[in-house]
TrEMBL record:
<feature type="domain" description="Mur ligase central">
    <location>
        <begin position="49"/>
        <end position="273"/>
    </location>
</feature>
<dbReference type="InterPro" id="IPR036565">
    <property type="entry name" value="Mur-like_cat_sf"/>
</dbReference>
<dbReference type="InterPro" id="IPR036615">
    <property type="entry name" value="Mur_ligase_C_dom_sf"/>
</dbReference>
<dbReference type="InterPro" id="IPR013221">
    <property type="entry name" value="Mur_ligase_cen"/>
</dbReference>
<dbReference type="Pfam" id="PF08245">
    <property type="entry name" value="Mur_ligase_M"/>
</dbReference>
<feature type="domain" description="Mur ligase C-terminal">
    <location>
        <begin position="301"/>
        <end position="426"/>
    </location>
</feature>
<dbReference type="GO" id="GO:0016874">
    <property type="term" value="F:ligase activity"/>
</dbReference>
<keyword id="KW-0547">Nucleotide-binding</keyword>
<keyword id="KW-0479">Metal-binding</keyword>
<dbReference type="InterPro" id="IPR001645">
    <property type="entry name" value="Folylpolyglutamate_synth"/>
</dbReference>
<dbReference type="InterPro" id="IPR004101">
    <property type="entry name" value="Mur_ligase_C"/>
</dbReference>
<comment type="similarity">
    <text>Belongs to the folylpolyglutamate synthase family.</text>
</comment>
<keyword id="KW-0067">ATP-binding</keyword>
<keyword id="KW-0460">Magnesium</keyword>
<dbReference type="Pfam" id="PF02875">
    <property type="entry name" value="Mur_ligase_C"/>
</dbReference>
<protein>
    <recommendedName>
        <fullName>tetrahydrofolate synthase</fullName>
        <ecNumber>6.3.2.17</ecNumber>
    </recommendedName>
</protein>
<keyword id="KW-0436">Ligase</keyword>
Length: 438
C-alpha cells in the first residue's frame, strides 16, 4: 500500500460521516469556502442534475457523450459501489489518491484556523474536493449529480450552472424532503438558478410540473419539458435496447442503447434533449459519436447483467418508484421466465411498498442484510415481514447465512433461462459488484 493510499484512508476515517442535509445553513457555508477558493466552479461548464430516480443514468449518458466528442469531463455522482473515490471521476477514471489529497490540502489551507476538519460532512468534503480537482484537471464540462434533495444539498453551493436537469420526481427520503410531491419537488427545484436553462424529464406529475414552472418563472430562466416524445422500441433484450425516437428537441433518429430497462427511455429522451440544446448553443457534438457513446455505455448497478444462463442482474432500485420501474422492465424483458429475487433493504426505506411490487413476480425470494451499514434492515425481520404482510409461500422463501450463500443457492435452483435479480439497496448490491464468482 502506497503512502498516499495510507494517508487517504486515514483522512477518510476521521471525516464526519453525517449527512447534515437537514441543516439549511450548510450551503451558505460551502459557498463561503468556494469564494475563498476563488470559485473553482466558475472554471468549467456545469450540468447540475436533481431528481428522485434517473440521476445516475442521465449523468453517465451525458458524461459518455461529451467525452466521446473529445471534451474533458468531470463527473460527480453517488453512491460509490466499491471505492468512495468512484464518486469523483475525470474522463471516466476515478480520482487518484495524490490528486484527492492535493485538492483536500488546497481546501484545508483556506479554512479558518479554528475550523475543525469534521465540521464538514464527508459528502461536503467530497463535493468540495471534486469541484477543486476538476479545476486542477482543467475539465471542460462537469456533470454534477445532487446527493439528496436539491436546495440544501452540498452540490447546490455552486453558482448558476449551464443546464439544470430534473429527472423523474417521486417519493423518497420523505422524512427529510417532505411527505408530499409538492414538498419534494420544491426541494429538488432549489437547483434552478438565474442564468441557467432547465430541462425536465418526461412523465412528471402535474404538481411537479407546476412547481418547477413557477420556480423557473421566479428565477426568470427558460424551462423545457421533455414531452410529446415519439418513441418506438424496435428491439430489447439483456444486451441492450434499440429505439426510434424524436420530439420537439430531438431530431428523428434510431439509437442503439447499451443500457437495458424501460425506465432508461425517459433518461435517454432527457439526454438527447440536452445534447440538442447544447448543439444549438455552440457545443460541437458529432451525431455519430453520440450514437457510439450511447451504444457502448454500461452502468454499474443499473440493470447490470453480471452473468448469463441464468441471467443475474444487479439493480440499485431503492424506493417504490424504482421498484415499479424494475418490475415493468422485467415483465418486458423476461415474460414467462422464472424470476428470483435476492433482497436487502435499508430499514428507513419504504420496503413494504417495494415488496408489493416484487412479490407478485417472484417465484423465489432470498432475504439478506446489507453488510456494514447502520441503517440495514435485518434479514430475519425482512423474512418475518414477508410472512406476516404477504401470502408468499414459505417454502419459496429462503434465509441463507449471507448474501453469497443466497446467490449460490439461487443458482443451484435456477435453470439456464431463469432470471435472478439482486436488488433493494445500493448498499446491498455493492456486495456483488466486481465479484468474479458472480
Amino acid at each position: 500500500m502506497s503512502t498516499n493510499q495510507q494517508d487517504y484512508q486515514k483522512l477518510i476515517a476521521k471525516m464526519n460521516q453525517q449527512m447534515l442535509v437537514t441543516d439549511d445553513d450548510r450551503v451558505p457555508l460551502l459557498q463561503q469556502i468556494l469564494a475563498k477558493l476563488g470559485h473553482p466552479d466558475h472554471a468549467y461548464k456545469i450540468i447540475h442534475i436533481a431528481g428522485t430516480n434517473g440521476k445516475g443514468s442521465t449523468g453517465a449518458m451525458l458524461a459518455a457523450v461529451l467525452q466521446k466528442n473529445g471534451y474533458h469531463i468531470g463527473h460527480f455522482s453517488s453512491p460509490a459501489m466499491l471505492d468512495d473515490r468512484e464518486q469523483i471521476k475525470i474522463d471516466g477514471q476515478m480520482i487518484g489518491y495524490t490528486d484527492f489529497l492535493q485538492a483536500y490540502q488546497l481546501i484545508n489551507d483556506q479554512l479558518p484556523a479554528n475550523f475543525a476538519t469534521n465540521s464538514l460532512s464527508i459528502f461536503e468534503w467530497f463535493t468540495l474536493i471534486a469541484l477543486v480537482a476538476f479545476q486542477q484537471a482543467k475539465v471542460d464540462f462537469v456533470i454534477l449529480e445532487v446527493g439528496l434533495g436539491g436546495t440544501n444539498d452540498a452540490t447546490n453551493a455552486i453558482s448558476a450552472p449551464l443546464l439544470a436537469l430534473i429527472t423523474h420526481i417521486d417519493y423518497d427520503h420523505t422524512r427529510i424532503l417532505g411527505h408530499t410531491i409538492r414538498k419534494i419537488a420544491t426541494q429538488k427545484s432549489g437547483i434552478i438558478k438565474t442564468g441557467s436553462t432547465v430541462i425536465v424529464a418526461p412523465h412528471q406529475k402535474r404538481i411537479t410540473r407546476t412547481v418547477l414552472r413557477n420556480v423557473a418563472g421566479q428565477q426568470q430562466v427558460p424551462i423545457h419539458f421533455v414531452n410529446n416524445i415519439r418513441l418506438k422500441v424496435l428491439a430489447h433484450n439483456f444486451t441492450g435496447t434499440t429505439v426510434q425516437i424524436s420530439g420537439p428537441l430531438i431530431p428523428n433518429q434510431t439509437i442503439q442503447l447499451g443500457l437495458i430497462g424501460g425506465f432508461q427511455l425517459d433518461n435517454l429522451a432527457t439526454v438527447l434533449s440536452a445534447t440538442t440544446w447544447l448543439q444549438k448553443n455552440n457545443v460541437q457534438l458529432d451525431q455519430r459519436l453520440i450514437h457510439e457513446a450511447l451504444a457502448q455505455l454500461k452502468i454499474a448497478g443499473r440493470m447490470q447483467v453480471v452473468q448469463h444462463h441464468p441471467t443475474v442482474i444487479l439493480d440499485g432500485a431503492h424506493n417504490p418508484d424504482g421498484a415499479k420501474q424494475l418490475v415493468l422492465s422485467l415483465k418486458k424483458l423476461a415474460p414467462n421466465h422464472k424470476i428470483t429475487f435476492l433482497l436487502g433493504f435499508l430499514a428507513d426505506k419504504n420496503y413494504l411498498e417495494m415488496l408489493q411490487n416484487y412479490l407478485p413476480l417472484a417465484k423465489e425470494i432470498y432475504v439478506n442484510t446489507p453488510s456494514q451499514h447502520q441503517r440495514a434492515l435485518d434479514k430475519d425481520q425482512l423474512s418475518k415481514t414477508i410472512q406476516t404482510h404477504f401470502s408468499f409461500p414459505k417454502e419459496q422463501l429462503f434465509n441463507e447465512p449471507d448474501a453469497h450463500a443466497s446467490l449460490s443457492t439461487a443458482l443451484k435452483h435456477a435453470a439456464t433461462d431463469d432470471v435472478i435479480v439482486i436488488t433493494g439497496s445500493f448498499y446491498f448490491i455493492k456486495q456483488f459488484e466486481g465479484d468474479q464468482n458472480v
